[in-house]
């Protein structure tokens, strides 16, 4: 019996012996007088054991069967290992038709020793930045290198964009590393799906932040334009305000997205047996749509802040930009190759030695940009640079050298030498 039940037995015995009244019993035990009489009747009928709870030692009616617990633990070890309790409960309901609460799943895993008991850290006191009121007011863009395919495939980097107002993942794609092409791919996909946002939040990667840095005070006073990267020039053309975060915590919305994806997306890719980057990109839209249905929220203002796309194709805006000089044959060079704009009837020829802007797309397509219009170019011939000769030249055969004038062979014989040679002969 418990300590509380022993106390009840002692009080009821004193009541039976006449040392206490029913009011004293009710006050000491914290119960009503009617409940005190019930306890007294139980004691008189069954003794001290009758005071104990009637369900003690009995299995509750709503308890989970041991076979179900064993099946849940076996499924976790074989298919769903690594998932947290919330995600595991969702996967059981989706794939196994097992509907359990998150607390039940967590308790089963803890009892089986499959999940460590996590110590909850005290949350830090900070004031989070409120969400933007309208969708399209702010996008956050970033990339996360991670073992998304575990040991089944190579290391990949997930590029993604999230809307600050709704938490919706606008676009995402896998690439081997963090590259300009990956950011351009998700940016073009997001622009075509939603429109042009007002601002973009990113880190200070060299893709967004030019190596030369921000202009000095003297350059600003002189009116010199700031140097922009390829991505920054495209944002300026679209009228998107670029904001650079000074710390990862500043763009916490997308940083928390990576934590969620690293916890859930890895399991989803494993269940689909995805082993390559191509397969991962093929199933990624389905997983992103599932994530948005579950975690995206409605904005405060239903009216979106997106602007319409420009008439210029996005491939021409998100392109590398260089300046070249047109030769007399209407050609220019780019990375060791010679290009020529496709001839168009009625279009005058470019002046020789004039400087033109050349734009190169992410797929390698080359355009000549003039007055807001792109002229496609074709490769004419490769400008081959003669390779430096590394082999040593063969040594020329040595020509017979004449003896010097002061050589003993070139001196005339003296009279003594002639007499000596005659005598010896």
Task: Please give a handful of descriptors for the protein shown.
single chain, 425 residues, alpha+beta, Nucleotidyltransferase, domain 5, six-stranded antiparallel beta sheet, five-stranded mixed beta sheet, 11 strands, 16% strand, elongated, disordered C terminus, Transposase, InsJ-like_HTH, Homeodomain-like_sf, nucleic acid binding, ISNCY_transpos
Through-space gap between termini = 145 Å
Strand content bin: 15-25%
The CATH homology group name of the largest domain: Ribonuclease H-like superfamily/Ribonuclease H
- Classify the oligomer: single chain
How helical, in percent, are the residues?
A: 25-40%
The residue ranges in which pLDDT falls below 50 over 5 or more consecutive positions are 382-387, 389-393, 396-404, 407-413, 421-425
Mean pLDDT: 83
Order of helices and strands: HHHHHHEEEHEHHEHHHEEEEEEH
* Total beta-strand segments: 11
* Annotation field: number of helices: 13
Q: The CATH topology of the largest domain is what?
A: Nucleotidyltransferase, domain 5
């Amino acid at each position: 019996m418990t300590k509380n039940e022993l106390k009840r037995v002692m009080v009821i015995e004193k009541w039976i012996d006449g040392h206490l009244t029913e009011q004293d019993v009710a006050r000491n035990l914290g119960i009503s007088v009617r409940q005190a009489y019930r306890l007294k009747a139980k004691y008189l009928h069954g003794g001290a054991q009758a005071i104990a709870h009637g369900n003690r030692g009995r299995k509750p009616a709503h308890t989970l069967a041991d076979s179900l617990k064993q099946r849940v633990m076996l499924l976790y070890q074989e298919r769903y290992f690594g998932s947290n309790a919330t995600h595991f409960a969702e996967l059981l309901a989706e794939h196994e038709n097992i509907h359990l609460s998150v607390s039940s799943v967590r308790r089963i895993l803890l009892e089986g020793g499959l999940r460590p008991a996590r110590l909850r850290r005290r949350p830090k006191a900070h004031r989070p930045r409120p969400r933007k009121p309208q969708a399209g007011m702010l996008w956050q863009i970033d990339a996360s290198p991670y073992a998304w395919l575990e040991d089944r495939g190579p290391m990949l980097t997930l590029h993604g964009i999230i809307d600050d107002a709704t938490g919706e993942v606008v676009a995402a794609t896998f690439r081997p590393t963090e590259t300009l092409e990956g950011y351009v791919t998700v940016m073009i996909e997001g622009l075509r799906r939603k429109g042009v946002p007002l601002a973009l939040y990113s880190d200070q990667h060299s893709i967004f932040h030019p190596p030369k840095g921000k202009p000095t005070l003297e350059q600003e006073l002189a009116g010199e334009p700031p140097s922009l990267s390829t991505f920054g020039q495209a944002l300026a053309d679209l009228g998107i305000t670029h904001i650079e975060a000074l710390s990862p915590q500043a763009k916490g919305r997308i940083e928390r997205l990576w934590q969620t994806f690293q916890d859930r997306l890895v399991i989803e890719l494993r269940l689909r047996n995805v082993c390559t980057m191509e397969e991962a990109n093929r199933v990624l839209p389905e997983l992103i749509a599932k994530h948005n249905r579950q975690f995206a929220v409605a904005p405060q203002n239903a009216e979106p802040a997106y602007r319409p796309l420009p008439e210029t194709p996005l491939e021409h805006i998100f392109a590398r930009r260089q300046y070249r000089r047109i030769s007399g044959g209407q050609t220019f060079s780019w990375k060791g190759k010679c290009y020529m704009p496709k001839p168009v009837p009625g279009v005058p020829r470019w002046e020789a030695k004039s400087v033109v802007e050349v734009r190169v797309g992410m797929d390698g397509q080359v355009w000549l940009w003039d007055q807001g219009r792109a002229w496609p170019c074709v490769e004419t011939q490769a400008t081959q640079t003669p390779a430096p000769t590394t082999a040593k030249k063969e040594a020329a055969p040595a020509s017979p050298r004449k003896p010097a004038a002061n050589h003993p062979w070139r001196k005339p014989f003296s009279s003594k030498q002639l007499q000596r040679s005659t005598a010896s002969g």
